[in-house]
Amino acid sequence: MKLQAFFLCLLFLFFAQSLPVNAQSEKPALKIATIPLPPWGYKTPKGISTGITFEWANAIAKRMGRTSQNRILPMQRLFKEIEHGRSDFSIMLRTPYSQKVSVPIANIGTPFKVIVWPRKGITIKGYNGLNNLRLSMVRGMKVGKKFEDKKNLDITFSTDYAHSIRMFKARRVDAVIGTQVSLHYNAYQDGLKINEEFDAPFELARFQGWVQASQHFIEREGIEEIQKASLSLIKDGTFQQIYEKHIRYMPFLTD
Q1: What's residue 255's pLDDT?
Q2: Rounded to an integer, what distance in angstroms lies between the CA atom of residue 223 and that of residue 217?
Q3: Does 10 fall in a domain?
Q4: Is residue 138 one of the residues assigned to a domain?
Q5: pTM of this prediction?
Q6: Is 99 helix (H, G, I), strand (E, B) or coil?
Q7: Is residue 103 domain-shared with residue 221, that is, in the same domain?
Q8: Residues 6 or more apart whose Cβ sits within 8 Å of residue 172
Q9: Strand, coil or helix: what is 77?
Q10: Which residues have C-beta within 8 Å of that of residue 40, sequence separation ≥ 6?
């Protein structure tokens, strides 16, 4: 019996050493959380997840040689997932709250402009130009302290960007507020003719998107590998190609 056990041990060691390195040290799939904001992250009518940040995050995992599980989650849940380590990383705006719950990895270099987009014939030259306008914005959206300090503005809160655009289309509001790319995307999806329906936007703020990781992930795996993958995708133009693919049918964003 002892001799049999000895040979079984030898056999086990032989097969263990002959396994490919990847089979012995394969890491688990990366758990990714994506913001639910078209065209950054959304589901198609067929239920397929896609979007700019959705594809960016998948590209990071692929560049790291890892499989991934990418879920589109409501914003508050996304933050909790990152904070408690149930998701490894996300790509989102760097805000005071995100700084409390995540570790910054890489600035993606694409600015998120927050604008007031008025109806054709309405010119906004400054914050005082907002006083007599009927405005719509998504409930809970952060657009900068200067705007938030304005009192007595006529704001109708919406459930999402598509809702804001529908109110604009129905002439219930004079202008919509939000990130430029998402407003353009939803206006385009609703069939609005941009040059005929909208006037020049007034910029409220400009934020930066960052790859941001859970502290639990960084403690487990460190920052070097994910940061290297993220920066290489920015440098070689992969992120830009993904971005342009999603907005190529909106010429007013590519001029």
Answers
A1: 44
A2: 9
A3: no
A4: yes
A5: 0.81
A6: helix
A7: yes
A8: 134, 136, 156
A9: helix
A10: 34, 51, 52, 53, 54, 181, 182
Report the CATH number that the domain containing residue 198 is assigned in CATH: 3.40.190.10
Query: Same domain, yes or no, for 181 and 104?
Result: no
- Quick one: 174 and 49 in the same domain? no
Kindly state the helix (H) or strand (E) to which residue 109 belongs, with its residue range. strand 103-118
Q: Which two tokens stand for residue 245?
A: 């693919």
The answer to whether the CB of 246 falls within 8 A of the CB of 182 is no
Q: What is the distance between the alpha carbons of residues 186 and 164, in angstroms, rounded to a whole number?
A: 9
Domain assignment of residue 7, yes or no: no
Per run of 10 residues, the mean pLDDT along the chain (length 255 residues) is: 50 49 66 94 93 97 97 91 96 86 92 93 95 93 84 93 96 96 92 93 92 97 97 96 85 52
DSSP 179-245: EHHHHHHHHHHTT--HHHHB---EEEEEEEEEEEE-HHHHHHH-SHHHHHHHHHHHHTTHHHHHHHH
Cα(203)–Cα(133) distance, integer angstroms: 16
Domain residues for 244?
A: 28-111+208-254
Residue 157 has what pLDDT?
96
Please name which of 62, 66, 42, 63 lies closest in space to residue 54, comparing C-alpha atoms: 42
Element at 62 (helix H, strand E):
helix 52-63
Give dist(CA 243, CA 39) in Å, integer: 9
Per-residue pLDDT, 11:
47
pLDDT at 26: 79
Beta bridge partners of 203: 115
Structural contact between residues 68 and 61, judged by C-beta atoms closer than 8 angstroms = yes
Place of tokens 């460190």: 222
**What pLDDT sits at residue 4?**
54
Q: In one letter, which amino acid is 182?
A: S
